[in-house]
Design brief:
Length: 389
């Protein structure tokens, strides 16, 4: 990145703006406690206000200069908590949207999640799992090369090697050899990495949903532009939807959702996570009662459902925008018809000569149920009445 690009990031990037805020420690510690530590992704406005009020009382927190308006510094914690939440929502640190009952819900924005994750990565870890990390890299590299090789003979050779290795291991186990298993260190490494990947996955969902929201805003902005034809707006909207489906992010999400909705996979995932925590307990491994993985399936379903709902809302938005455009066109047509009617009424008492009329060569094509499409144009030729015919 160049100097100018980095400078722009410091001025505009929301994660950096959050970290540079005067009360950053207060904001981030509260978000960490309410959302990350409690494994909560969504919370109601009333509950969030109550938790913030309690947190301010717990810290005996006093605002620094310019955090809130000067006139609010003597308000009680409940009033200031509400003002803080509004400010954080307007600043892009919190997302606010109504539920079906009209009550406001709040979530951390993807930018805020990035800031929390970066601070979490700064913490000194007791153990860094270099061994498990390298093995993951090695196996993923190996799989990528294998799965992109179109040479059938080479694939057969690789599969034969795996087959022989599996058969050798089976024979050794049958002969009484003790199976090779993870030791306590490897279990800790794998558990840490699984938790880290799972939390990053939830953060990715939030970003995907935000991308849908941006497309909705783009369509709304396009709609407010003057002289935008309905056909043009439709093409823009459908291209945006197609872009989502064809981009790697959209393809990946679709494949994931199908995988998550598979009942057999759900049962298998539940059994695996239950066995994981049983394993941790059997080896007396302290995991700080972190049961995030145990509830991951539910978190993923909730977050994934919001992405699906965002897509549905996007489709509804397109339909509503097009309907509004059609309504405006009909209103304009009715206004023109009304103008013609008034002009006709004004000529009722006027005597009109035959020379004032024109005659259409053929019968005009009129279909009240026909809708005009972009690019179509019907032309009718008219000429003065022939007096010599």
């Amino acid at each position: 990145m160049t100097f100018e690009e980095i400078l722009l990031q410091f001025k505009t990037a929301k994660p950096l703006l959050l970290l540079r805020a005067k009360n950053a420690a207060f904001i981030i510690s509260f978000f960490q406690k309410v959302f990350s530590d409690a494994n909560i992704t969504t919370i109601t406005n009333s509950e969030l206000r109550s938790k913030l009020e309690g947190y301010m009382e717990e810290l005996s927190y006093e605002e620094r200069d310019e955090e809130l308006e000067a006139g609010t510094l003597f308000d009680d914690f409940s009033v200031r908590a509400a003002q803080y939440i509004d400010k954080w929502s307007n600043s892009g640190f919190l997302r606010k949207y109504p539920n079906d009952e009209g009550e406001d819900l709040h979530e951390l924005t993807p930018d805020t999640i990035k800031a929390l994750k970066w601070l979490s990565d700064l913490e000194r870890r007791e153990h860094v799992g270099t061994n498990s990390r390298f093995k993951d890299i090695f196996f993923k590299l190996q799989k990528m090369i294998e799965q992109t090789n179109e040479d059938a003979e080479a694939r057969i050779e690789e599969l034969q090697k795996k087959k022989w290795a599996i058969e050798d291991e089976i024979n050794l186990l049958k002969s009484g050899k003790k199976p090779s298993v993870f030791d306590e260190t490897e279990i800790k490494e794998q558990f840490y990495d699984l938790n880290k990947m799972a939390r990053e996955l939830l953060a990715d969902f939030s970003e995907v949903e935000q991308n849908f929201e941006q497309i909705r805003k783009d369509i709304q902005r396009k709609y407010t532009e003057k002289d935008v034809a309905k056909g043009t707006l439709l093409v823009f909207a459908l291209d945006a939807l197609d872009d989502i489906d064809q981009k790697p992010q959209g393809k990946s999400f679709k494949a994931f959702w199908e995988f998550l909705m598979d009942e057999r996979r759900q049962q298998e995932f539940t059994q695996l996570t239950e066995r994981l925590y049983q394993l941790l307990n059997e080896h007396n491994i302290d995991y700080n009662n972190d049961r995030f993985l145990k509830h991951l399936k539910r978190f993923l379903h909730v977050s994934g459902r919001k992405v699906i709902d965002s897509n549905r809302k996007l489709s509804e938005k397109i339909s509503r925008v097009l309907s509004e455009k059609n309504l405006l066109e009909r209103r304009r047509a009715m206004e023109l018809i009304g103008d013609i009617r008034q002009m006709a009424y004004s000529l009722i008492e006027t005597k009109i000569k035959d020379d004032d009329f024109i005659v259409i060569e053929d019968e005009p094509y009129i279909n009240l149920f026909d809708r005009w499409e972009p690019g179509e144009e019907k032309v009718y030729v008219v000429k003065p009445k022939c007096t010599s015919c």
